[in-house]
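Board notes (copied after class):
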Amino acid sequence: MRTRILLLSVLLAISGVPAFSQQQESAVRLWTLKECIDYALSHNLNVKRGELQVELSEVNFTQAKMNLLPSANASASYGYNWGRGLDPVTNQFVSSQRNNVSSLNANGSLTLFNGLRVQNSIKQGRHDVAASEKDLAKARNDASLLVANNFINVVFNKEQVENASLQLASSQQQLDRTRIQVDLGALPLSEKLNLEAQVATNELNLVNQQNALALSILQLKQAMQMQASEELDVEIPALEPQDLILDQDRDEVYGIAREIMPEVKSSKLKIESSYYAMKVAKGALVPRLTLNGSLNTNYSKNSESQFVSDGGFTLGTSPLGYAQDGATQIPVYGIRPTGAISDVYMFDDQVKDNLYKSVGFQLTIPIFNNYTSRASFQRSVISNEQAKINAQEIDNTLRQNIETAYNDAIAASKSYQSALKQVTARDEAFRMMKQRHDIGAANYVEYQVAENNLFQAKSDLARAKYNYIFRKKLLDFYQGKPLDY
């Protein structure tokens, strides 16, 4: 009686733990693949870096366009000087205790011709913006693929945990029956001991699968830039391999990918950008013609004091000279207007009267500048050739990745079909072996081999299944289809 009560308690405890675990898991939100990818794209640092690069390219492009407009600058100065100096208004030497001086000027310049450097810079900037946008799309694709791969690993490990749980439950049920038969004397004690060892092995296998699942969830969180402490569980997609058909060959997939993959478009845009950069550098080797203009004026505190006539005149007190009248010299006196010194020539009047304007053309002919312009042009030619090589390398990498993915998909499809047949056969073999073991027609070793073979076949099937699903989705991705299930 005690043995039965103890056995019943153990069975209730075993059956109760999964139920509690399932209740705990159900409280955790299930994430779809699309939700995981959207979360990753909003937190991925490479994506954010790509977004900033797009903004930087747009700023450079705007600056290139603004170079078509004239440049204009203005300046003003105000200060004091003491002692003997040149008055900026009268251009005469003056001596004073302190003089307040000020100057105002404005100048502008318009490039009329500089070897089409501005126009080519605009074209280069336009291609740089487009290339940075494609690079951003590439960063998004890389982040999406990484999340999708880790998502598939989580789904695969969840199925492995389920298989391990079913194997443990099956071996536990078989142990319960064997204990009863051993208690009744129908089977030897060694059968129970062997099954207890098998249950312990299956428990260890379940723990290992749970650890693998926890690790895959952690890797998914890291790919999503999510904190490890946050809860995360994924929704198993209702998708079977037979729903996926390889309806195109590798050359067709490659042809489509060359037209839509952002890294290919980016490499072509960078070739065009380097071409216009080469023309910009070449423009520095030709003469440059500019139109310049300026406005200048100034003010002096000393010039504010001016003589103001009252309309009258007076003779000077000292003779200016002498006139000869025979033997007599007659002194000659000058006439001076009468008036007073007053501060009447103020700031506004001085600024208006001292205004100076200029306009002119400037032709700059490069003759020798320490090989700087020539070296810059040669570097741009080399950069253009490097861009072409990079584009070819990207195209080759894309073709190789598609060829590999296509071959992997074909191999995974064949592996899945073989694994499916194997599971069907192993399941039937285990069912028959279980019946024989229950009636004592088969020993523990035969039962254990059949059970392990079935578990291994199911594991191989799960691995082949999700491997094929991911490989097929990868081919769909190269054709511009969304990474979703």
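Comment from the instructor: The first helix runs from residue 2 to 26. Residues 16 and 22 are 10 Å apart (CA to CA).
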